[in-house]
């Protein structure tokens, strides 16, 4: 056991546009049980599902494009989803997320001003942006979106990055899929190795200046 007590919980308020988190008491209680003085809720999109037709057609061919919710949104659409997501989180958990991590770490162009209105930071795949400073840090992911080839290649690539990274800050994204596709133990092994080599557990907000 790694005894991990410091972590950010990335929450989609309305998964797949069907499952609002406040309507699922079991899942809601599970998140509440994991909210401590050393953990935080981070807004992770709204539905984690792209409405863009091209993304849906390419899903499974060009990777998990169907989850790129914020990749092709207008500013108004993005603003509406963020506001509604924050409202659901507030009403459900009585907390306000100070950070935003978009699904697949992909954002439409020109969204920084919108995000700056609501959050203290946001992330992309290779960057954490605190608005007054940025930190280079690639995200280690151990699932390919339940797409067989990507489920094999993405964990392998992330494990290699974990082994050879020189980044001062390393982000590890743990997904429920990791258990189902068999990459969870590899992920724990890489986290254990990082801790043994000197990395310490942190929250995104620990680096707000």
What can you see in these coordinates?
The protein is α/β, with parallel strands linked by helices. The protein has helices at 25-33, 53-58, 75-93, 112-118, 148-164, 177-181, 184-196; strands at 7-11, 14-15, 19-20, 39-43, 99-100, 121-123, 127-129, 134-136, 139-141, 171-173. α5 (148-164) packs parallel to α7. The longest helix is centred in the middle third of the chain and has 19 residues, at 75-93. The chain is globular.
How would the blueprint of this fold be written?
Elements lengths: L6 E5 L2 E2 L3 E2 L4 H9 L5 E5 L9 H6 L16 H19 L5 E2 L11 H7 L2 E3 L3 E3 L4 E3 L2 E3 L6 H17 L6 E3 L3 H5 L2 H13 L13
Parallel strand pairs: 1-4, 5-6, 9-10
Antiparallel strand pairs: 2-3, 6-7, 7-8
